[in-house]
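#onboarding

Welcome to the new folks! Below is a worked example of what a typical request in this channel looks like: someone posts a single protein sequence, and someone else replies with the predicted structure as tokens. Don't worry about understanding the tokens yet, we'll cover that in week two.

Example request:
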Amino acid sequence: MLKTLYLGCVADTALFRDAPKLFRQAFPWFQKNITKGDVSQELAGERVAEVVAAPGFVHAGVRWSWGNRL
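Example response:
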């Protein structure tokens, strides 16, 4: 079964490097202050490690939340 993982929005990376400059400036602020969906690169990495290592994440079709997104 397919599994996916949403870590949160890591808005302070080069992911949007080809987007217009105004978007690159506004998007991280918007994610941090309005949607509250922004996470740091470090936190995103910790979440990946947790999912890989923790036995509670072996089940597919289950939704987990880290508290900042449903």
